[in-house]
């Protein structure tokens, strides 16, 4: 036993495998544990709490867990400091970037939860009983009985746990586990729409199958990288990349493995981000999923996925920019151009927002390509700004409904005359759309400026030119929605607008406030991300073991 | 020290907020539907172009009109107060130091990007701001009843005018490139709604969209150049960027040319210069006359002002390379705009095309790079604002009487409304630069200056003057002289309100036509500074080119 148990800190003989029981820093692990614990508790509540009081209990637990996680993350900022720390035996990193992204995810998840918990006439956005056949007598009975799926809340908590881990993972296996923890509840949640259930189930199956494919690519890429570097740990991979691979590749013939590994891992991550050509799931899933879940995916999942993408390209592969740069250039250009043009042809609001999310992913990719600290800070700001705006936009989508049956009205032509019917709502949506289009005095403009500035400073000017031309195209369809709402009279009755409840109204208010505040006074957030050299202070936009043009941080 | 410029921006902005915040008067259900029916009826009438404008029945009018009446008074009060404030500021302006920036205010805004809320005016900016704040109250006055048949009685329109006024002052006063860009882009939004929501005709939504997309596309191209300026120059402050020894001055000519082009395209679209002028006739034709005054009189000046202030002064090294292409485009604009103006059957579009021609003179004067030509161009910007503004207002009065802007619907107005015909003739003659009226002085200065630069473009541009006589006098002849049409026999002459709206402009046109010295005293020092910069660098680049040639020979 003693021969295997290395307790005095001597290096393990097999790289990547730790025989020592890791010392756990419970304080730094607390946010994960809170969310995980709440999720497990919520599952137990499903079994033991009486049906009547189940919903309020579940909502309270979920909200309390998210608030507590956010509070812990904020408190950790002080403890961790500039250097960052490793926890759980080096599988999770805690540094400025991780804490910023986790804090963003926690807040955005909390806001999404408000949408998820919203009920109209005693009914939420989710199917009464997902196991029944759509359109069957059994389903009707469940609807009449007022059945509901309170399992939604534990599922959301587990998904959020995955999202918190995804950008913090410091080795590929943890990252893969986080990816699955995040994705599996989402596949389920996508299938739970109350209305157009077949459509929703189709979306979920599509998401699941394509997601499984991308996971396979990701795993295969991990295997390649492991073969090259002899480790799945990011720091070890970084060292291996710098020294030309594991010992067996002393002659420098390991490069093909690394190239394949980077490519395959990138496919897995770019799929989650929804970059062209891995974007096909996005419009279908966004359209089919219950809108509150779409909002959750469009904000939190995107933040988490980009957090992971940034870490992978800045830490383990930070030393091999020349390999992935041409690849990401191609993907970024394709994403910005193709998605913008396809979006112009869309008639459905949710599909349009999905394609818009793809285009935005392309814009953020330009910051990844910049491969600099400014790029990191820009991407982080962009993600936070975009998350709030997109939540607000989807909250409005939940309110506009058809006159018969009261389901959400996706078709844009049906939105005509909304500006006259409910001017406040139409104005709020216009603000969000202008922010998407990047008009000054909105957060979208500052975000776009930040990522494009980083890209130009890194010499990627052609990419930025493509970016602004694509913005011009996207502006067309954002503005077209404004035209439909304000300048066109509705044919016939037009849409009904459900009265915004406290929760949905709160989401829209938060969205408007964040969009304006980050657009007019972005100073505090940006300074926090990357203080100017004069003021000093510790930047939040820093990753442990980061390798960028700005230098290496250990 | 009084922060004049901040106050001048804040005052109309507050006015806009006050109007928006006015309590909405609840109209009874029947009144609302009646008003709606009325609005759609008048919309149909507008598209037909033949029916007489409908007036709201008093019963429906009173409910919504109560707040609209207040809104008009508030708008008039705030615009006159702004005029008084700016006049007081101009009184304190030190004419002797008009070449440098005065009333400077610099506050940090977004330290992360080194963005400042920096304001300041030199002679040119001062006269343009003065022109803008003079036009706004007159537009408010002229548009008094223009929108009373709309649901909100036009109060949204007046709020938009004030919001636009704040941004117009901001865009001319900004001495931070980023701040300038923010105002430059944000200005589009109020104008977009002014055309699309409060415009005329069925095509107004399309025209508004075209206007917005053209401007946005130009603005986004400029965004790349703005980022480039920041990355190279390290600051956004105009005073630091143009200071001797700034990194921007030392940039290699090829980069300077690209940056110049980025700014120039945006300004050329705004100006509007052939071949990117195509949005203007549609936008002006679909605008209400008040909007057209601000659009053509002030907004388009931002383009020419930007060329003078940013293209010439930030990238002096690139200027010599662009002189001939821009001169050629200007000549095309002059003649093409004039010829198309002759062929128009719609008065609003006709005046818009004359502006394309006049803007050709302005850009020609700017890029001739001689002191007289630039002084003439700067003076022309002001005079054109007054003359074309007056012309649009009077066409607006005709539209209010006849419900149509087509030339063929008029004829013989002279006999029934002699005062109206009189002011129409005077402003028309100002448009064709009759000696004794203000535009003559500026056009003459441009000719002299351009002749000193090179006789050929000067001679070609004279053709524009001949054509101007043709389109103005022919329009006058077709609308005012001849037998009075049956439908026009009841036409009323100018009302007191209308007289007050145009009389100040005509007084200014005559006053500056006879004695332009006060304006020139303020403009000349500022122009001399630009010319100096241009001349300096032209000689240094010539030397540099000489050097490289010598180098090649070695």
Characterise this structure:
The complex is a heterodimer of chains A (554) and B (554). With 554 residues, chain A is mostly helical. Chain A has one domain (26-552). In chain A, 58% of the residues are buried. In chain A, the strands form 3 sheets. Chain A has a two-stranded antiparallel sheet. Chain A has a two-stranded antiparallel sheet with strand order 3-4. A two-stranded antiparallel ribbon of chain A has the order 5-6. The radius of gyration of chain A is 23 Å and the shape is globular. Residues 1-12 and 549-554 of chain A have low confidence and may be disordered. Chain A is built from 20 helices and 6 strands. In chain A, a hairpin with a 4-residue loop joins strand 1 and strand 2 (92-94). Chain B is mainly α. Chain B has one domain (4-25, 64-549). Helix content of chain B is 75%, strand content 3%. Chain B has helices at residues 4-21, 29-48, 58-91, 123-142, 155-173, 177-186, 188-196, 204-233, 238-241, 253-270, 279-286, 289-314, 316-343, 347-368, 371-402, 413-416, 418-431, 438-453, 455-480, 496-514, 517-553, and strands at 102-110, 115-121. In chain B, strands 1-2 form a two-stranded antiparallel ribbon. In chain B, helix 4 (123-142) packs parallel to helix 15 (371-402), helix 5 (155-173) runs antiparallel to helix 7 and helix 12 packs antiparallel against helix 15 (371-402). Chain B is globular and about 70 Å long. The N and C termini of chain B lie far apart (59 Å). Chain A: Keywords: Cell membrane, Membrane, NAD, Quinone, Translocase, Transmembrane, Transmembrane helix, Transport. Chain A: It is a multi-pass membrane protein.
Could you provide a short overview of the structure?
The complex is a heterodimer of chains A (554) and B (554). By secondary structure, chain A is an all-alpha fold.
Task: Compile the SSE list and pairings.
The complex is a heterodimer of chains A (554) and B (554).
Chain A: H1 26-48, H2 51-80, E1 85-87, E2 92-94, H3 96-117, H4 137-145, H5 152-165, H6 172-190, H7 197-229, H8 234-243, H9 255-273, H10 281-288, H11 291-314, H12 321-344, H13 349-370, H14 373-397, E3 400-401, H15 418-421, H16 423-437, H17 443-457, H18 461-487, E4 496-497, H19 502-520, H20 523-529, E5 547-548, E6 551-552
Antiparallel strand pairs in A: 1-2, 3-4, 5-6
Chain B: H1 4-21, H2 29-48, H3 58-91, E1 102-110, E2 115-121, H4 123-142, H5 155-173, H6 177-186, H7 188-196, H8 204-233, H9 238-241, H10 253-270, H11 279-286, H12 289-314, H13 316-343, H14 347-368, H15 371-402, H16 413-416, H17 418-431, H18 438-453, H19 455-480, H20 496-514, H21 517-553
Antiparallel strand pairs in B: 1-2
């Amino acid at each position: 036993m003693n021969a295997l148990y290395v307790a005095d800190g001597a290096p393990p003989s097999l790289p990547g495998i730790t025989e020592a029981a890791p010392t756990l820093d419970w304080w730094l692990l607390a946010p994960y544990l809170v969310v995980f614990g709440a999720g497990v508790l919520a599952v137990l509540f499903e079994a033991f709490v009486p049906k009547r009081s189940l919903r309020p209990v579940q909502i309270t637990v979920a909200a309390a867990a998210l608030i507590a996680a956010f509070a812990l993350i904020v408190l950790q900022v002080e403890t961790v400091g500039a250097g960052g720390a490793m926890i759980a035996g080096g599988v999770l990193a805690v540094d400025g970037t991780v804490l910023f992204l986790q804090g963003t995810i926690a807040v955005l998840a909390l806001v999404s939860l408000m949408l998820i918990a919203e009920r109209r006439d005693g009914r939420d956005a989710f199917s009464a009983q997902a196991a029944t056949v759509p359109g069957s007598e059994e389903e009707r009975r469940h609807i009449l009985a007022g059945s509901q799926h309170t399992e939604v809340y534990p599922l959301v908590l587990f998904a959020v746990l995955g999202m918190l881990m995804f950008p913090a993972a410091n080795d590929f296996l943890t990252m893969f586990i986080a990816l699955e923890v995040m994705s599996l509840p989402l596949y389920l949640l996508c299938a739970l729409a109350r209305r157009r259930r077949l459509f929703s189930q189709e979306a979920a199956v599509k998401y699941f199958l394509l997601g499984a494919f991308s996971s396979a690519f990701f795993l295969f890429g991990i295997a390649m990288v492991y073969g090259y570097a002899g480790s799945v740990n990011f720091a070890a991979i970084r060292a291996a990349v710098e020294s030309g691979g594991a010992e067996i590749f002393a002659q420098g013939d390991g490069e093909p493995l690394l190239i394949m590994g980077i490519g395959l891992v990138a496919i897995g991550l770019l799929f989650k981000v929804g970059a062209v050509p891995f974007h096909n799931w996005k419009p279908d899933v966004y359209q089919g999923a219950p809108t509150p879940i779409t909002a959750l995916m469009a904000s939190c999942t995107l933040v988490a996925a980009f957090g992971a993408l940034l870490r992978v390209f800045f830490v383990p592969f930070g030393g091999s920019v020349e390999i992935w740069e041409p690849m990401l250039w191609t993907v970024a250009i394709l994403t910005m151009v193709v998605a913008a043009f396809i979006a112009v042809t869309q008639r459905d609001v949710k599909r349009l927002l999905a394609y818009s999310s793809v285009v935005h992913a392309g814009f953020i990719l330009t910051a990844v390509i910049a491969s600099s600290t400014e790029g990191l800070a820009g991407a982080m700001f962009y993600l936070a700004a975009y998350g709030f705006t997109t939540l607000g936009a989807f909250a409005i989508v939940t309110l506009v409904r058809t006159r018969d049956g009261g389901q959400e009205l996706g078709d844009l032509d049906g939105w005509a005359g909304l500006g006259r019917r409910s001017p406040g709502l139409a104005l709020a949506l216009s603000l969000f759309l202008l922010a998407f289009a990047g008009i000054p005095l909105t957060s979208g403009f500052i975000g776009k400026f930040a990522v494009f500035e980083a890209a130009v400073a890194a010499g990627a000017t052609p990419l930025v030119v493509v970016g602004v031309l694509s913005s011009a195209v996207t502006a067309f369809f954002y503005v077209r929605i404004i035209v439909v709402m304000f300048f066109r009279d509705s044919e016939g009755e037009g849409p009904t607008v459900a009265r915004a409840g406290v929760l949905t109204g709160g989401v829209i208010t938060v969205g408007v406030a964040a969009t304006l505040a980050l657009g007019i006074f972005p100073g505090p957030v940006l300074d926090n991300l990357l203080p100017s050299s004069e003021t000093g202070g510790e930047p939040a936009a820093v990753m442990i073991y980061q390798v960028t043009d700005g230098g290496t941080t250990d | 020290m009084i922060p004049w410029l901040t106050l001048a921006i804040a005052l109309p902005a507050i006015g806009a907020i006050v109007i928006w915040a006015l309590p909405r008067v609840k109209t009874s259900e029947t009144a609302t539907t009646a008003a709606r029916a009325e609005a759609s009826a008048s919309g149909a009438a507008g598209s037909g172009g033949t029916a007489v404008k409908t007036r709201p029945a008093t019963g429906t009018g009173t409910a919504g009109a109560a707040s609209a009446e207040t809104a008009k008074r508030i708008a008039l009060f705030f615009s006159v107060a702004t005029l008084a404030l700016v006049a007081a500021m101009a009184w304190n302006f030190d004419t002797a130091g008009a070449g440098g920036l005065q009333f400077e205010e610099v506050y940090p805004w977004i330290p992360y990007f080194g963005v400042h809320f920096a304001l300041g005016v030199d002679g040119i900016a001062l006269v343009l701001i003065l022109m803008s704040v003079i036009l706004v109250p007159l537009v408010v006055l002229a548009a008094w009843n223009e929108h009373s048949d709309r649901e909100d009685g036009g109060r949204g329109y007046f709020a938009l005018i004030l919001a636009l006024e704040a941004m117009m002052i901001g865009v001319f006063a900004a001495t931070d490139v980023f701040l300038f860009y923010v105002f430059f882009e944000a200005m589009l939004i109020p104008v977009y709604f002014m055309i699309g929501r409060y415009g005329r005709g069925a095509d107004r939504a399309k025209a508004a969209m075209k206007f917005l997309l053209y401007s946005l596309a130009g603005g986004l191209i400029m965004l790349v150049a703005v980022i480039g300026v920041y990355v190279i120059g390290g600051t956004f402050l105009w005073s630091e960027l143009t200071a001797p020894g700034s990194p921007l001055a030392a940039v290699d000519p090829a980069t300077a040319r690209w940056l110049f082009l980025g700014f120039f395209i945006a300004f050329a679209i705004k100006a509007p210069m052939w071949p990117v002028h195509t949005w203007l006739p549609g936008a002006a034709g679909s605008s209400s006359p008040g909007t057209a005054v601000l659009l053509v009189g002030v907004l388009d000046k931002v383009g020419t002002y930007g060329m003078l202030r940013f293209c010439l002064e930030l990238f002096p090294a690139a200027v010599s390379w662009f002189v001939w292409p821009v001169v050629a485009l200007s000549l095309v604009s002059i003649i093409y705009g004039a010829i198309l103006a002759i062929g128009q059957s719609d008065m609003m579009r006709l005046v818009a095309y004359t502006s394309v021609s006049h803007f050709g003179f302005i850009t020609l004067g700017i890029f001739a790079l001689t002191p007289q030509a630039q002084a003439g161009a700067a003076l022309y910007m002001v005079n054109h604002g007054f003359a074309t503004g007056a012309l649009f207002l009077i066409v607006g009065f005709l539209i209010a009487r006849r419900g149509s802007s087509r030339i063929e619907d008029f004829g013989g107005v002279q006999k029934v409304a002699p005062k109206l015909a009189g002011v129409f003739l005077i402003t028309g003659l100002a448009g064709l630069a009759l000696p004794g009226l203000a535009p003559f002085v500026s056009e003459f200065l441009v000719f002299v200056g351009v002749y000193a630069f090179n006789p050929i473009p000067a001679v070609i541009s004279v053709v524009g003057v001949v054509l101007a006589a043709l389109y103005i006098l022919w329009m006058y002849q077709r609308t005012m002289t001849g037998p009075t049409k049956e439908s026009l026999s009841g036409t009323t002459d100018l009302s007191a309100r209308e007289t007050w709206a145009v009389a100040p402009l005509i007084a200014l046109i005559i006053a500056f036509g006879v004695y332009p010295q006060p304006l020139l005293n303020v403009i000349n020092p500022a122009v001399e500074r630009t010319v100096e910069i241009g001349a300096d660098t032209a000689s240094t680049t010539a030397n540099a080119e000489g050097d490289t040639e010598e180098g090649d020979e070695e």
